Amino acid sequence: MVTDTKAGGFAGWLRDFEEQARARAAAGDPEWARGARLEPCVVRSLQRFQVGEDGDGAFLIGKAERAGDAEYAAAVRLFIAEEQNHARMLGRLLDAAGAGTIGAHWSDAIFVRARRAMGLRVELMVLLVAEVIALGFYRALYEGAGDPLAAEVAGRLLADERRHVPFHCRRMRQGLERVPRPLRAAALLAWRAAVAGGALIIVADHGRALRRLGRGRARFVRDVLAEARAAAAEISRPPGRGAWPRRRRPGRRPGR
Ligand SMILES: [Fe+2]
Ligand SMILES: [Fe+2]
């Protein structure tokens, strides 16, 4: 668990991202040569998530640098590197399954446009919607892929996303701490509504893949909303009281 106690407080997160990068380099890649067997509907879903993971993060890095916290900006660079690694691993997994990547998808274009148009705080809120939804999807893939290579990739992505969510929550808590409490509560309510909207788009667009992975639409939405509730609680948590409570193993459901 990463804990940062001082005002800016991202030294611990920076250390965590650096340690993860070292651990990743030491562990090396999954054994791509063993190949993967994936249903066409799951392949299509992975292709869309792969597009979402890809990107250079230049806008986010620029905003983080302008925020004036060098440790946070350095941590954001390493966060972007992890997301790029997700895109690379999903690309390799698709390749191992005999499928290619796709260049673009409308759902990603909407997210990117919404994020770039706003300041750091709103960009993080939009990004956190995608992170919470990705958590739900990679957990479904981890538990339901029925393929060892896909499960290994999903497990690695899931472990990273479980760190990304509290990392963004930490920065959003700082960004919202001077906002009057009723306004902050309204912002978090709007954010949770955006997560619900995003989850509904995913079940409409990826319903067949989710079913194939053993996730009913209702359960997927429930899982994502539980993650969103926990993240909102973390963002509104008063400084110094408790900490992000969970460092779950891949596969454990929220609150269980
Ligand atoms: Fe990711
Ligand atoms: Fe992420």
TrEMBL record:
Gene3D superfamilies the record matches: Ribonucleotide Reductase, subunit A (1.10.620.20)
Protein name, entry field: Ferritin-like domain-containing protein
Biased segments, Basic residues type: 244-256
Record region (Disordered): 235-256
InterPro entries per the UniProt record, alphabetical: Ferritin-like_SF (IPR009078), RNR-like (IPR012348)
SUPFAM superfamilies reported in the protein's UniProt record: Ferritin-like (SSF47240)
Domain of life: Bacteria
UniProt entry keywords in alphabetical sequence: Membrane, Transmembrane, Transmembrane helix
